[in-house]
Amino acid sequence: MALTPSFDAAVHASRRARVLAALESEGDRVVALLPNAKVFARNHDVEHPYRSGSDFAWLTGFDEPESVAVLRTQGGSYELFNRPRNPEREQWDGLRAGLDGAKERFGAANARTIDSLDDGLVELLSNADVVAWPLGRDNGFDAKVLAALAKVRLKQRLKIDAPTRFLDLSCILHAMRWVKDAHEVALMRRAAEITAEGHIAAMRTAAPGLSEFHLEAALAHAFRRGGSRRDAYEPIVASGPNATILHYRENDRALAAGDLVLIDAGCELDFYASDVTRTFPVSATFTKAQAAIYELVLAAQAAAFEMVRPGVTLDDVHNASLKVIARGLLDIGILQGTVEEVIDKDLHKPFTVHRTSHWLGMDVHDAGIYYRRGEAVRLEEGCVLTVEPGLYFRPDDTRVDECWRGIGVRIEDDLRVTAAGYENLTAAIPKERADIEALRSDALASGGAAAR
Ligand SMILES: [Mn+2]
C-alpha cells in the first residue's frame, strides 16, 4: 500500500541528508518543497494506475497521491503533508498511512493533513530566505507557492521576512539521481534479470499466425511472475515492416514466416526501469539480407560498448557506433562515398534516425543532463546508460534496393559505468545470431510449447 516494496528507511534518510547538505550551501533558512505526482483521469471515473513521481519516490519512499515533502535546513527537518486516515474512504480506495504512519514508518518528524497545505505553505515561507521546489513542473503547485509568497510579503510589517531567492529543486535531485547508489544498483540488476526472462519467453513464443500482442502477453506474464508490478514503458512488439516505426504501439499484426520481430520492452521494479531491445526472426533463421543488417547493428553496438568508461561522453559512444554503421552501409552498397562523408553529411540519418544512448534509472529516459555550456557530460562511475544502435529501412523507401525494404533492427542493452569500464546488466538475453537462431529453431520444433 503506502510504501514502495523495497522501502528502506535508512536509504531514504541518507538521501534526504545529502539533499539537506546541498541546500545548506544556499543559506541557513532554506525550505524545500516537493509535491508528489498527480492522479490522472483515464475516462469518466476511472483513473490511470497511480505512480508516485520519481523524485518523490527517490527522496521519501512514500507512495501515496496528494502528498508534499518538506525539508528545512533550520533543524534539518523532514515533514510530510499527506492524507489523513479515513475509514470510509479507505474501505473504497485502500489503506492510507495517515499522519501517524508518515511519522512512524516513513521517518517524518512531523505530518500534517494535505488539506492544510495552503496555510502550511504560508507558515513555511515565513522567515525563510530561500525556497526550493521543482519550478515550472506542476502549474497548480507553482501557483500555491506563489500565492503563499504573496501572503507572507503582506506580513513583513509584522517583523516577518519573506523569501527573496528561489531555487529549482529538480536540478539538485536530478544530479543526485543520475549516479546510482548500492540500493538502486541492486534493484536495477534485478529489473534486468526479470526483463531478460520476459524477452526470452517472448522469443520462444513467436510463431507464424500469432499476433504481436501474444508476445506482449508473454512479456507481461514473465514480468509479473518475476515480481515487477508494471512496465517501465509501453512495450513495442513490432513485426515485419512495423519494426521500422521507432515507437510502434499497436502490437496487433499477425506474425508471418520470414518476418523479423523487434521487441523493445522493459519491466519496472520498485520504481526502477530496464530498457531492452532484441530483434529476431519468426522463422528459425534470418534471411541473408536480415542477417547482413543484424550483424552490422550488432557490430556497431560492440564498438559502442568498447568506448564506455568514466570520462568519455555519450557523443563518443554514439560516434563509435556510427563509424561501424557508416563502414557497413558502404560495404553492403546502400551508401556510396567514404566513412567521413557518410558521417559529416549525415548520409546515414535516414536509416539510423535516432541517437545511440540515454540515461536509465527511475525514469526510462532518466534524470541527468546531457550537455552543459555546450559540452557533453562525461560518464561517471555509477551512472547507467542504454546503448541501442538501430537501422531502419521503410517499406516504401526507394532509395535502397528492394531487398532491404521493410527491415528494422535495433539491439539495446543497459550498461552501468564502473571504475574500469562497464557492467552490462542485460547481457543474459541472447543476442548473437547463432544463439537466437538456435533458440528459435528449438522453439519452433517444440511448437511454441514455452508459451503454454
Ligand atoms: Mn532505450
Biggest sheet, strands in spatial order? 6-5-4-1-7-8
- What structural class do helix, strand and pairing data support? alpha+beta
Helix content: 25-40%
CATH architecture classification of the largest domain: Alpha-Beta Complex
At the fourth level of CATH, the homologous superfamily of the largest domain is Creatinase/methionine aminopeptidase superfamily
Judging from the principal axes of the Cα atoms, what is the shape?
elongated
Assembly form of the protein? single chain
Describe the protein.
It contains 14 helices and 21 strands. With 452 residues, the chain is α+β, with helices and mostly antiparallel strands. It has two domains: 9-177, Creatinase/prolidase N-terminal domain (Creatine Amidinohydrolase, Chain A, domain 1); 179-451, Creatine Amidinohydrolase. The strands form seven sheets. It has a six-stranded mixed β-sheet, with helices on both faces. It has a three-stranded antiparallel β-sheet with strand order 9-12-13. Helix 5 (117-125) packs across helix 6, helix 8 (182-205) runs antiparallel to helix 9 and helix 10 packs antiparallel against helix 11. The radius of gyration is 25 Å and the shape is elongated. Manganese (II) ion (MN) is lined by residues 275, 358, 386, 388, 412.
